Amino acid sequence: MKIRLDPWPVDTQDGQLTLKPFAGLVFNAETDTWAAVAPRDVPRRLEQVLVVDGKPRMEARLLLDDEAGGLSLAGFGAYVVGAVNLCPHGSRQAELYGVAAQRILAYSSDTPGTMLEPARLSPRNPHTGQLDYHPHRFNGAQLEGARGKVQRLMLDAEATLSSDLASALPLDEHDPNALPDTLVLQDGPVRIGGAGRAVLGYVKTLHTDYLGADRIGLLGTLKPGERTPVLRFRVGDQGGGADSEGREQRFTWYVRLCDPPFYQHPLAGVMRLEMHAPDDSDFVPRGVLDIANLSGTLLCRLASAPHKDPRAPQNLIPTAALEHAMGRAMGSPELVTRRIRAHIAQMYGPEAVA
């Protein structure tokens, strides 16, 4: 028995590797030959790449007490969605795009007659700005309902931004001009309902095994920049017949970003990629195949290093820079908490009630 390390630090939410078997069916899409595909250069036609990510944060849990004595849960939260605009050929500096905080007052919809107004937290010093929280209902009365609502709003904003920034992607098999001029790299899987755009989801953690025991061995033999052939699956497929086939089809493939040290597991340095697939298709559109071919070269250029990022190499350099910018946009959590306490004291404290 060999003991190998998971490369990610133990204080992250999840490890880099879990590999729960996918319950549904996975089909060959590009070829029936299961072998490594060599990396190719990034064509000049691809003019810009935008890395999109989001960051949620809960800032206070609330308990709402109505006049009839009913209690319900709520919370102040915030999220930021933004992008890094970069040239894949290195001809210009990268730029941040659209990084701005949105603040949410999430409350349960289970309390009849509850309708919260926007909350404006005005500071004593006008130069520090106002915090405007916009009310949003969440279903149920669970303790984590407010957090889930903030997360959902962030994911929806991510999907909208990715779709708005990405070029249209023809789903034709032979179009020679199918490679877009603008490609969006979106942190995480692509979202439901976003087909037809050049959005490439990159999944940093390997929590689901789409390959099975007979194919997963190829991942450990990939060289940096090499990829697997493109596969196809259906989101949510539980392998239980027509009633559980899932909602939308996806293309997926794996890319190696770097060789792992000998003490890490052999899948360290491997990332899974994902794009929308047309329904009932038995081919890979030319644009998707072109993106798959350049993905290894592009992502190896953007991969982080262990001495700079503990989640290297999967946490891309632009992603790490964007995470820092999003944290600054949301502000100091300690100062925000103080502002919330001061607001509640002003609105509902003894002086306000008197």
UniProtKB/TrEMBL annotation:
Species the sequence originates in: Deinococcus rufus
Name of this protein: DNA double-strand break repair nuclease NurA
Domain of life: Bacteria
A Pfam family hit: NurA
Domain called NurA: residue spans: 69-316
Matching InterPro entries: NurA_domain, RNaseH-like_sf
